[in-house]
Design a protein that fits this description.
The complex is a heterodimer of chains A (508) and B (121).
Chain A lengths: L20 H24 L7 H21 L6 E3 L4 E3 L1 H21 L11 H19 L3 H19 L6 H32 L4 H10 L4 H17 L8 H8 L2 H26 L4 H24 L4 H17 L9 H33 L10 H4 L1 H15 L6 H13 L10 H30 L14 H19 L2 H6 L8
Antiparallel strand pairs in A: 1-2
Helix pairs in contact in A: 1-2, 1-4, 2-3, 2-4, 3-4, 3-10, 3-13, 3-18, 4-5, 4-10, 5-6, 5-10, 6-7, 6-8, 6-9, 7-10, 8-10, 8-11, 9-10, 9-12, 10-13, 11-12, 11-17, 12-13, 12-17, 13-15, 13-16, 13-18, 15-17, 15-18, 16-17
Chain B lengths: L2 H4 L1 H25 L28 H25 L1 H28 L7
Helix pairs in contact in B: 3-4
The chains are: A mainly alpha (508), B mainly alpha (121).
């Protein structure tokens, strides 16, 4: 029977939701700190301008404190709020730590960059705080509504920041392209989400997972699942949804590019992991082939285009696209061993954050002297900046996946999940083996363009034989040091794989 | 078909009702009204004044900023109305929450004020 009396059974009594203040503390601290930064800017205007970056950086570190205390109190995890729509589990804490630390490094990178050229800069830090708040929410969201709010809270400030240098046409192009593509992606994703909600009758991911288990592959299910995934595909710049990335990366202020390439991409992956591993768990025969094609296309096309780039930022943009392909690969075989696939993706994200932020730090430092983004301008760097050259070589080796620095371990875990030599191992699937071959071939291609930058730095003469040294501001030195230490340590210790196997509380 | 999908029939009926209501009214009025087209009737309507320039003219960007500020108060109202209905049950907790919420929104207004957006220069 059709029930026209929609409100008959609705419970109208209001019940106040219980709030776990400790679990919400990282978000609340960051929110309060963002308000504080805005207030300081409003009260003192120009006089406070010099202190705003430092103040914002301390805000990210302050928000790390509750993350650490929550981690220490691990018996109480996972902590749930709002009937399981908001879950703080170990994995969420790992991601929150990653977001806050990389945001701190980005602030260090920006400190000396943004005030060149007399643009607004206090607002930049207020917006970046808002964007990071969105990421913290993303790590805990287990419901379509908070996931959507988080992804918009991450993206909307980023659209503004991409167009920051408003007198520079390229920056305008960057912001506009990013916004148009981002809005387009959000629209597709929302449409997919509305279909999922229509079928499951709930926005909670776990409830959607249960509802999908019972449903056959009717077209509505396929559209809902794929549209949602396509929306996240844009956010992680997977081929064929990557077209915004190179132009946005090139035109945006370079610190923001680092932020987009690392933190924003990780946020997209967090959403992807949550939705696939909880919501679409039973739909692996639909999701896996899609992710397979996405991963294969992303790594291959990203690498082939990166080969031809002469601008270092564009090269890093396309290499970032290719790296996203490696990260998507474990999701193409997730049904064999979901835990292994998840930890392979998380492990890659953690290591990728350190090495990519490091590479961008070197690009920013080098551009202070050369005022150029061309790879050829890196010539002779070993002559005048040996320390910087060694650091960059470490990052490039890591990005190429050469032992003993971090990147090889990241790739190793991807191979492990594809070929599945985990516990209780079964024979690897054909799809997994084929994808592993593709990852291997692509790594060789990628090594060429990463190492040719290293060659430029070590063996080629400097542009115009200009061997004057580069002055590195202390903020950039700290950022570089953090990135080098994490990249090296993650290659020789078991730290990142340990972190990446953190518990993934599923919500109710 | 499951009970759940069945309930979407209501939505379908509403769509039918909407099309029938609008189509019926427009159809009825076009059937009974006299039809005397003239040139003046297809002119753009600008508050009764004869239109000048084309329809493709620039508008002041400043209106846009004021519209944005308006949205801020709009959002505030959207959240305050439902809050007011449950304020008794929420007690002090609700009051403090709302003060914080309004403070954050007011920060936006303060920002606009301090940075001179409100001056019609």
């Amino acid at each position: 029977m059709i029930s026209f009396d929609l409100l008959a059974n609705t419970e109208l009594a209001f019940e106040r939701p219980a709030i776990d203040w400790h679990a919400a503390a990282p978000e609340l601290v960051l929110l309060a700190w963002g308000a504080l930064v805005t207030l300081v800017d409003l009260v003192w205007l120009e006089k406070a301008r010099r202190f705003i970056p430092t103040l914002t950086g301390f805000g990210f570190l302050a928000a790390l404190i509750p993350v650490v205390t929550l981690w220490a109190d691990s018996d109480a995890l996972p902590r749930q709020m709002f009937d399981g729509a908001y879950v703080t589990d170990e994995l969420a804490l790992v991601f929150k730590g990653l977001f806050l630390l990389s945001a701190y490094v980005v602030v260090l990178l920006g400190a000396n960059y943004l005030n060149d050229g007399n643009y607004y800069d206090s607002e930049f830090y207020q917006l970046i705080s808002a964007s990071v708040l969105g990421m913290l929410i993303m790590a805990s969201a287990r419901d379509l509504v908070p996931i959507f709010i988080a992804i918009e809270l991450v993206s909307i400030p980023a659209y503004l920041m991409a167009a920051w240098r408003k007198r520079d046409l390229k920056s305008n192009e960057a912001g506009l392209k990013y916004m148009l593509m981002g809005v387009f992606a959000s629209a597709i994703m929302l449409y997919g989400m509305s279909l999922l909600y229509g079928m499951a009758g709930s926005t909670q991911i776990s409830a959607i997972g249960e509802a999908l288990t019972g449903l056959s592959d009717r077209p509505l299910v396929i559209l809902g699942v794929l549209f949602t995934l396509i929306g996240f595909g844009f956010k992680v710049s997977a081929v064929p949804f990557h077209t915004w990335a190179p132009d946005t990366y090139e035109g945006a202020p370079t610190p923001l590019t680092a932020f987009l390439a690392v933190a924003s991409k990780t946020a997209g992956f967090v959403a992807l992991l949550t939705v696939i591993l909880i919501g679409f768990e039973s739909k692996s025969e639909l999701v896996e082939p899609f992710m397979w094609v996405l991963a294969a296309a992303t790594m291959t096309i990203g690498n082939l285009i990166a080969l031809r780039q002469t601008n270092i930022v564009r090269m890093l943009a396309y290499s970032g696209v290719a790296q996203a392909g490696y990260m998507l690969a474990p999701l193409a075989v997730y049904s064999a061993n979901p835990e292994l696939s998840r930890s392979a993706v998380v492990n890659y994200l953690l290591i990728y954050a350190a090495m990519n932020l490091g590479a961008f730090a070197v690009v920013i430092i080098a551009a202070r002297k050369t005022k150029s983004g061309e790879i050829s301008s890196f010539g002779g760097m070993f002559q005048y900046a040996p320390g910087l050259t060694v650091a960059m070589t470490i990052f490039l080796f890591s990005l190429a996946g050469l032992p003993p620095v971090g990147g090889w371990l990241a790739k190793w875990r991807v191979f492990e999940s594809l070929l599945f030599f985990g516990e209780g191992s079964t024979a690897p699937s054909l799809a997994g083996v084929l994808l592993a071959v593709l990852v291997a071939l692509n790594s060789v291609v990628a090594a060429y363009y990463y190492l040719s930058v290293a060659k430029q730095m070590w063996f080629m003469p400097a542009v115009n034989d200009d061997n004057s040294t580069i002055k590195i501001p202390s903020a950039l030195t700290i950022a570089l040091a953090i990135a080098v230490v994490i990249t090296v340590v993650s290659g020789v210790t078991n730290l990142m794989p340990e972190l990446s196997t953190a518990d993934f509380g599923l919500g109710q | 078909m499951s009970e759940f999908f069945r309930e979407y029939l209501i939505v379908f009926f509403f769509i039918l009702l909407a099309v029938a209501a609008v189509g019926g009214l427009i159809g009825l009025s076009s059937a009974i009204r006299p039809n005397r087209p003239s040139k003046g009737k297809i002119k753009n309507y600008e508050s009764g004044v004869d239109p000048t320039e084309g329809g493709w003219s620039q508008s002041q960007i400043r209106y846009y900023i004021f519209a944005l500020l308006f949205v801020m108060f709009d959002v505030e109202a959207v959240f305050i109305f439902p809050w007011a209905t449950v304020l008794e049950e929420l007690g002090w907790f609700g009051l403090v929450e709302m003060v914080i919420f309004i403070f954050i929104l007011a920060l936006g207004l303060g920002y606009a004020w301090r940075k001179g957006v409100l001056k019609w220069a």
